[in-house]
Prior knowledge:
mainly alpha; 15 helices
Amino acid sequence: xxxAIIGDIVGSVYEFRNHRSKVFEPFFHPNAFYTDxxxxxxxxxxxxxxxxHPAQALKDWGRRYWDNGGWGQRFAMWLASDxxxxxxxxxxxxxxxxxxxxxxxxxxxxAISMARKVTEVTHDxxxxxxxxxxxxxxxxxxxxxxxxxxxRYAIVERYGYDLDRTPDDIRPDYRFNESxxxxxxxxxxxxxxxxSYEDAIRNAISIGGDSDTVAAIAGGVAEAMFGVxxxxxxRGWSYLPVxxxxxxxxxxxxxxxxx
Length: 259
């Protein structure tokens, strides 16, 4: 989903140099780039749209864009190997790549089952599965025009995350963390308290932490809530190579959602 990818691009320059404010210009920093978050999101979209095994799609895309860097150590080892078995991860990579499942799903159950399908090939720890499912569910419910308050209620009831906060509450004490349990709730708060797509991304950048991933998760939900402004979408699209654009075009076509 372009909303998640743009979050990744905007957040790319702040991952290791946090900017704890919603005020930053330009929105796309001159040094911004797509990271492994985008590569993996495209891989998941490819798996779902073309009915490919998620592990094979992740390996194919990861190896194609190996030099893009940014891979977590255990994921990189899995990516480079011939092994298809999961490795018990609860890293936030489970959630940053899962937005396509929420976009394609036709029901709550389908959103959750799709999320599990594309996640369990690597992140089969309960917290990894939980983070992916919660993110996909939030995207799906937002597409159905469920209110932010009711999305929050549904996520809390099913997954127990603390979403009764604002970015202002999170910002003072939040630190870099690559786990689902310390990334997904914060990212969902950034989206569910936002007033627009851009506001959600600015919320995500402002709390610090693993900025590209927080913004990617928030961006996927925010796209479903608000859509992506056309000028922002055009700019985000311009960062992507042709093969990624082709997969995203097919994803939007299959979902029936305008890109």
